[in-house]
Specification:
The protein is α+β, with helices and mostly antiparallel strands. The protein is built from 23 helices and 27 strands. It folds into 4 domains: 108 residues, Beta-Lactamase; 119 residues, Beta-Lactamase (2-Layer Sandwich); 157 residues, Reverse transcriptase/Diguanylate cyclase domain (Alpha-Beta Plaits, 2-Layer Sandwich); 253 residues, Alpha-Beta Barrel (TIM Barrel). Helix 16 runs parallel beside helix 18. The C terminus is likely disordered.
């Protein structure tokens, strides 16, 4: 027994009942109190544990001696090294023939356990404080039953603690999210995931769950941090909306439309359905931006977008494609008549007057339609073909609906080829000028109009009507215009030096040239480079070019007049200006469009209009030149009405420079028998 007592990992002692003196102690017990096995023997327990310890131990000893039952207690002591330790003491009575002879004392060092318990308590206290201080919701549950919940979680879900404690966590999860949450409950991973919580009022709250396992209140439980992510979800939704929608109108943007439309085409292909894609462009929208400003234009675009969306049915897809262009993919409909009905409804909706910042504005759409699958098998192809049909609508008068036809694609391909050839022609300078004389009342030459020709390597001479519109659309008109100006001025100087011409040479301007920065300075440089002066040059502008910004146009014309340049309005009568408008501008000459001349003198309406134009122009001090004179009767009539000049095939056709030079020589004064008016 002594050997056993010496080696067990507890302190063992024996005290006799009478006198409470120690009769045995193993080394561990003796060392605990700074003694050894010999010195401890015969000591009263007070001498061993000290007065303070005796006061704590005395009640337990008395209980054992009085009742003869084992007793157990824990207390803190200071060991031989002066360190505080916790011990657990068990006192077991030694009884012989019913008499208590003594007591076995078993002492175990439980410091480690006490420290662990203290750490757990401290951890739980910290966790409890954290739960109530945290701004995020925290829920504890054991096997799915809620054991604790903090105030932020209660506020997030709209419940009181009494309403949540003891209930299953799944009761606070909507049906659509329960499978996900149940899988986490069963697998019990350490995980973070997005889900949905169910508010007391039945609404869904987007949340992030952070799930951990831990000891809490002495038991292993699951802790769930419930994080409110409504702001994040809303921000992500806004980002997604911005990524897929037009910022101004809220409609789908081009990318989102293409993706969604591709899916619908795939479905239509599988189901054998026909689908229509409509391309809408607002007519003359640029004028609204230029005249009323971009803010008004933006408000108009928003209104148009709302009207387009309102005129469509559920299942139709609409997008702002850019600028004033909109694209619509109609849900399957039965053929062109149904599509035309939708287009008519759109035209009526868009064309209704709009009140914007006190102004009443009306715009009309030109609409092109391509049908799937006959007009294209992809979104890109349908958009391209609907766009071509839309441009045909504009060419035919605007505010119209046109369905795509195969010849439009062929024409577009031809335009691409022509564009490439035209760009090459600009680089290689494949252009020359023809000149058409302008004749006065007495038959003398009062001017020449320079008319550009493209010397095409395969097609021969190509007239301006076949390439100038394309050059203007692709901004190739600027280098072409510069080339025409240089050639015309060089010819004018040459003919004037030879004594063949005293009148100016007229050059037609495009709107791009006239509006280009530094245009007037460019004219001055061209005159200087050719050795010409302003009187040798006449610039012909269209009526539309005079309408854009009256003050800017007036300033530019005044600068040109300061160079000595003559200013003429070409094709007068086909645009939007009036003679009253022109009186504010420094104009020298009106060239009346050939459409007013071709039916003279027999057509009374044309005659009345022509007389009115001539009379009003003369009242404003403007010269009048009639274009398109092809018969002697037309020549005689316009001269009789007071036109200062005329131009047309009856006088002379456009001629290359060499031919024109010979023509001019024939008309010099030394040739009195020259043909004059009768030259044809």
């Amino acid at each position: 027994m002594r050997l056993l007592a010496k080696n067990v990992p507890i302190a063992v002692a024996y005290f006799e009942a009478v006198g409470l003196t120690c009769r045995y102690a193993n080394p561990r017990y003796a060392r605990m109190f700074g003694l050894d096995e010999s010195s401890v023997l015969g000591c009263h327990f007070r001498e061993i544990v000290g007065e303070e310890g005796a006061e704590q131990v005395q009640p337990y000893a008395e209980t054992l001696l009085r009742e003869g039952v084992p007793v157990r207690y824990e207390r803190e002591v200071t060991n031989a090294r002066g360190q505080p330790v916790w011990i657990e003491v068990q006192m077991v009575p030694h009884t012989e023939e019913g008499v208590i002879r003594g007591a076995f004392v078993l002492v175990t060092d439980i410091t480690r356990h006490r420290n662990a318990e203290a750490a757990v308590r401290e951890s739980e206290e910290r966790l409890a404080k954290f739960m109530h201080a945290s701004q995020e919701g925290i829920v504890f549950h054991q096997d799915g039953v809620i054991t604790d919940v903090n105030p932020p979680a209660l506020a997030l879900l709209g419940y009181t603690a009494e309403e949540m404690l003891g209930r299953m966590t799944l009761e606070f999860v909507p049906p659509e999210a329960r499978a996900q949450v149940m899988a986490v409950l069963v697998a019990a991973p350490e995980i973070r995931y997005d889900s949905i919580a169910l508010h007391k009022d039945g609404s869904r709250v987007p949340v992030e769950y952070i799930v951990r396992s831990m000891q809490f209140k002495g038991e292993r439980q699951r802790m769930i941090i419930v994080r409110d992510i409504r702001a994040r979800v809303e921000a992500e939704a806004r980002i997604q909306h911005i990524a897929h929608h037009d910022a101004l109108t809220g409609l789908l943007n081009r990318t989102a439309f293409a993706d969604t439309a591709a899916q619908r085409l795939a479905r239509a292909r599988t189901q054998g359905q026909s689908v229509a894609l409509m391309f809408l462009d607002l007519d003359h929208f640029k004028r609204i931006n230029d005249s009323l400003g971009h803010p008004v234009g933006d408000l108009l675009l928003k209104t148009v977008a709302e009207r387009i969306a309102g005129a469509l049915r559920e299942g139709d897809l609409v997008s702002r494609f850019g600028g004033d262009e909109f694209v619509v993919l109609l849900a399957p409909r039965a053929g062109q008549p149904a599509v035309a009905e939708v287009a008519t409804r759109l035209m009526a909706a868009v064309g209704a007057p709009v009140q914007v910042q006190g102004a009443t504005i009306s715009v009309t759409p030109s609409i092109g339609v391509a049908l799937f699958p006959q007009d294209g098998d992809s979104v890109e192809e349908l958009v391209k073909h609907a766009d071509l049909a839309m441009y045909q609508s504009k060419d035919q008068g605007r505010a119209r609906l046109r369905f795509f036809q195969a010849r439009l694609a062929e024409a577009a391909r031809a335009d691409l080829v022509l564009e490439a050839e035209l760009a090459h022609a600009v680089r290689e300078q494949q252009f020359l000028l023809h000149y058409q004389p302008q004749l006065g009342r007495d038959g003398r030459t009062i001017g020449l109009e320079a008319l550009v020709r493209w010397v095409h390597p395969e097609r021969g001479l190509v007239g301006p009507n076949h390439f100038i519109p394309l050059a203007e659309a692709r901004r190739l008109i600027l280098p072409i215009g510069e080339m025409v100006l240089r050639q015309a001025l060089r010819a004018a100087v040459q003919w004037r030096s030879a004594g063949l011409l005293t009148a100016p040479v007229a050059v037609n301007l495009s709107s791009q040239q006239f509006r280009a920065p530094g245009f007037v300075d460019g004219i001055a440089r061209a005159l200087k480079a050719a050795g010409a002066h302003g009187a040798m040059l006449e610039l012909e502008l269209t009526e539309r070019m005079l309408m854009d910004d009256i003050e800017a146009v007036r300033e530019r014309l005044v600068q040109l007049k300061a160079l000595g340049v003559t200013i003429a309005v070409d094709d007068f009568g086909t645009g939007y200006t009036s003679l009253g408008h022109l009186r504010h501008l420094p104009i020298d000459r009106l060239k009346v469009d050939r459409s007013f001349v071709k039916d003279l003198p027999g057509d009374e309406r044309s005659a009345a209009l022509m007389r009115a134009i001539v009379q009003m122009a003369q009242a404003l001090g403007l010269e009048v030149v009639a274009e398109g004179v092809e018969t002697i009767e037309q020549r005689d009539w316009v001269v009789a009405q007071g036109c200062e000049g005329w131009q047309g095939y009856f006088g002379a056709r456009p001629m290359p420079a060499a031919v024109l030079e010979a023509w001019l020589r024939e008309r010099l004064p030394q040739h009195p028998s020259g043909p004059g008016f009768n030259k044809s």
